[in-house]
Design brief:
By secondary structure, the protein is mainly α. Strand 1 and strand 2 form a beta hairpin. Helix 4 packs antiparallel against helix 5 and helix 5 packs antiparallel against helix 6. The longest helix has about 35 residues. The chain is flat. It starts with a helix and ends in a 6-residue tail after the last helix. Pfam families: PhoU. Homodimer. It is found in: Cytoplasm. It comes from Candidatus Coatesbacteria bacterium RBG_13_66_14.
Length: about 260
């Protein structure tokens, strides 16, 4: 009975993971295409469903622990499910935030002295688009590591978080430069609107960085299940371990 309940709970978690990944994909598509309808669906419908799934999964996990008092790998799996359940809900929250920013950016820009708006001229930095791809891959890989109990893949997700952090810093610096160049005192035209646009793009970058953090958390939960050891706050040790493995595999004479 315990195994059947665990399997059913795992299936529900995977359904939630699929929806969360879809939300992240769709929020980024809405940003690239400036699609208000797609952004609205992510922010208004999908987010509500993910919240409902999170509540059901948590309640079921608590019931299973209370009823069966599992031990060993089963209890580690239930703890991981509870942690991943929370991380998925937070990823969905960040996808909702991105969708809401995309919905604003897709809305017409107000025109002074007119009741109408004009389409915004928005240049999305290639660095921000690259961040989206990295964040999506981190989430996908962390969930595949969970499904396959792939310790190596989980460690690669954790090690890869540094790349996303570095790209976040570069993207935000770029956007701050755009803001400072377009809203100096005495300038006319798009100063305030440019500032708002760049600020929202910077907030999207920050949300993507947090998505990477939650993917890292999922990977750490995978290691807890597989190794029965918590790897919280040990990212740098894992990076060094993987680098040492790469050097060991590198053929002699390769600099």
């Amino acid at each position: 009975m315990l195994i059947k309940r665990l399997e059913a709970l795992n299936e529900r978690l995977k359904e939630m993971a699929d929806l969360t990944r879809s939300m992240l994909d769709d929020s980024l598509k809405a940003l690239e295409a400036l699609d208000t309808d797609l952004a609205a669906r992510v922010a208004d419908s999908d987010e509500l469903l993910v919240n409902q799934m999170e509540t059901w999964n948590l309640e079921e996990a608590i019931h299973v622990i209370t009823l069966f008092q599992p031990m060993g790998k089963n209890v580690r799996l239930l703890v991981a499910i509870i942690l991943i359940n929370r991380d998925l809900e937070r990823i969905a929250d960040h996808a909702e935030n991105i969708a809401n920013h995309a919905r604003y950016l897709a809305s017409p820009e107000p025109q002074p002295g007119s009741g109408h708006g004009a389409p915004r001229e928005i240049e999305i930095p290639k660095e921000l688009l690259a961040m989206g791809e990295i964040a999506r891959k981190m989430v996908a890989d962390s969930l595949r590591a969970y499904t396959d109990e792939d310790e190596g893949l989980a460690k690669r997700v954790i090690a890869g978080d540094e790349e996303l952090n570095d790209l976040t810093a570069r993207t935000v610096r770029l956007l701050i430069g755009r803001m400072s160049g377009g809203c100096r005192d005495g300038e006319s035209g798009d100063g305030p609107e440019l500032t708002e646009t760049c600020w929202r793009l910077a907030l999207i970058a920050r949300n993507l960085e947090r998505v990477g953090d939650h993917a890292t958390n999922i990977a750490e939960s995978v290691l807890f299940v597989v190794e029965s050891h918590l790897h919280l706050h040990h990212k740098h040790e894992i990076v060094r371990e993987l680098e040492a493995m790469r050097k060991k595999k590198r053929p002699r004479g390769d600099g």
